[in-house]
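Q: I have 228 residues here and want to know how they pack in 3D. Can you give me a structure?
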Amino acid sequence: MIRDPFGPGFAELPDELPIFPLPGALLLPGGSLPLNIFEPRYLAMVRDALAWPRLIGMIQPRLPAGREDEDSDEDVGAAPVYQIGCAGRIKAFQENGDGRCQITLSGLVRFRVSEELQGHDGYRRIRPDWSAFKEDFSPQSLSQDFERDRLQTILQDYFQLTGLSADWSSIEAAPGERLVTSLSMICPFDPREKQALLEAPDMDKRAEILITILEMAVMEARAGARQH
C-alpha cells in the first residue's frame, strides 16, 4: 500500500504524541480515517497537532464489558487505553464555522504506549515506543495464499445478515491489501476484534483474522435467526 509521502520518516517520529481514545474507531497504516471534531479538548488537540509532524495517536479505550459502544466523556476521557494504537497524520483539515472542524487522518505507523504524560488543555498525551513497528513504513503486501474468494463470499453473507450495503464493483476491483485494510476499519466489529486486527503482525495475519471475525459474526447471526 502507498504510504503518506508528506509524513515524517521513522527517524523523525516524535517523543511525545497526543492520543484520541475513541471506542470502535480503528486506524491502520495506509488507511484513511475522517473525523468530526467538536469537543473543546479535541479541538485543542487538533490545533496543537497541526504543527509538524501533524500526528495524532488513535487508540481504543478499555471500557467495561457491555459498555464498549459508549462514548461519554466520563468513560472515554479517563478510561485506561489499550497498549497499542496507530498514529495518523492530519492530511486534510476544514473548519465548519460553528466551532467544529473536520479532519482526515492518514494512517502512518503503530506505536506502543511507553508511559502516559501529563495532559494538556484537556487532552491526553503519551510517550510512544515506535521501535517494534518500523516495518509499517514498508509497503505491505499479501501473499499468494490470500483467500480473496473466501473473503468476498463470507463478506456477502455478512452484509446481507447485518443489513449493510456495499459497492460490489469497487470491492471486486480493489487491491487485496486495500480491501483488507478498508474492511478492517469500517466494519462494525467489537472493539476487541478491532484491536486484534490492529495488532496483527503482518497483512496476511490481518486478512486471516478478518475472515475469522466475519465467519464468526455470520455464524452468530444465523444462530440468532434460528432461535427466533
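Q: Anything worth noting?
A: The chain has seven helices and six strands. The longest helix spans residues 203-227.
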